[in-house]
């Protein structure tokens, strides 16, 4: 299936370092999309000051997209010395976080939203000043009233395009919510997977000072962080190892249940 992938800067720790890291992570995924010859459509891109990124969302389609990216969802931690002001010897290592969200894109048949349960709001796009994208109320916010789930799009000049895109994102979020409840019912021990963006819940650490990336779920370590964040073979390798680990765990649970 296609997926909607979102990146969001950490809210409570790290300041600008979180926003810079979020942009670098978004660039990494764009590199991986190119490396895998997938297609993507940008839904939202909210830049921060000094070249950082608050939030971005893209729809990615291609061969086995969800299979490859499903394990990227969670809290990613960065450790680095900020590249400002004093020499690196006089600066301490700063730590920040960002969150990746990977939502499988449902088909229309999966999620039906009744018109009485839907509210559509329009507002002026928050694009660059002076561009026609923000001279009319073309941005759209879709609200699912029973659950309070919200999705918005302001990427296009056409209100109709923004509406269609917001509804696709809304269906994906509702689908993920339903699947999350089903998973919680059948796998109660894993109901904490969504996380709270806390550093203690990080799935991977990117230590720029020591040129090291560590995936805490499988104990994977690589020493070439620049190569890893180019979004090519090194990222593909850890994703392959995560898939294999997941399959081993699933087989083990099956054997245990049969026993």
TrEMBL record:
Matches recorded under InterPro entries: PCRF, Pep_chain_release_fac_I, Pep_chain_release_fac_I_sf, Prokaryotic/Mito_RF
Q: Which GO BP terms apply?
A: mitochondrial translational termination
Residue span(s) of domain Prokaryotic-type class I peptide chain release factors: 124-140
Q: What span is annotated as the signal peptide, if there is one?
A: none
One Pfam family this chain carries? Answer: RF-1
Q: Give TM segment ranges.
A: none
| UniProt keyword list | Protein biosynthesis
UniProt GO molecular function: translation release factor activity
**Gene3D superfamilies in the record, alphabetically?**
3.30.160.20, 3.30.70.1660
Gene Ontology CC terms, in alphabetical order:
mitochondrion
Which PROSITE patterns is this protein grouped with?
RF_PROK_I (PS00745)
What family name appears in the similarity comment? Belongs to the prokaryotic/mitochondrial release factor family.
Write the protein's name.
Prokaryotic-type class I peptide chain release factors domain-containing protein
Q: Taxonomy-wise, where does this protein's organism fall, top ranks first?
A: Eukaryota, Metazoa, Chordata, Craniata, Vertebrata
Q: Gene encoding this polypeptide?
A: mtrf1
């Amino acid at each position: 299936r296609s997926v909607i992938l979102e990146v969001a800067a950490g809210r409570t720790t790290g300041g600008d370092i979180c926003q810079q890291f979020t942009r670098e992570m978004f660039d990494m995924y764009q590199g991986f999309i190119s490396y895998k010859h997938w297609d993507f459509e940008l839904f939202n891109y909210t830049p921060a000051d000094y070249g950082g990124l608050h939030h971005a969302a893209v729809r990615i389609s291609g061969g086995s997209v969800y299979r490859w990216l499903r394990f990227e969802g969670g809290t990613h931690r960065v450790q680095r010395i900020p590249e400002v002001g004093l020499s690196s010897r006089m600066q301490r290592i700063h730590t920040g976080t960002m969150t990746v969200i990977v939502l499988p894109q449902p088909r229309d048949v999966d999620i039906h939203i009744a018109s009485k349960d839907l509210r559509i709001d329009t507002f002026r796009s928050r694009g660059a000043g002076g561009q026609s994208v923000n001279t009319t109320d073309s941005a759209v916010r879709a609200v699912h009233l029973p659950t309070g789930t919200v999705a918005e799009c302001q990427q296009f000049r056409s209100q109709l395009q923004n509406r269609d895109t917001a509804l696709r994102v809304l269906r994906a979020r509702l689908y993920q919510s339903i699947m999350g409840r089903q998973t919680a019912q059948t796998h109660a021990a894993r109901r904490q997977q969504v996380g709270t963006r806390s550093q203690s819940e990080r799935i991977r650490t990117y230590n720029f000072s020591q040129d090291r990336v560590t995936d805490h779920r499988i104990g994977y370590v690589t020493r070439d962080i620049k190569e890893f964040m180019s979004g090519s073979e090194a990222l593909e390798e850890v994703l392959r190892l995560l898939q294999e680990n997941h399959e081993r765990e699933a087989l083990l649970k099956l054997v245990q249940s049969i026993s």
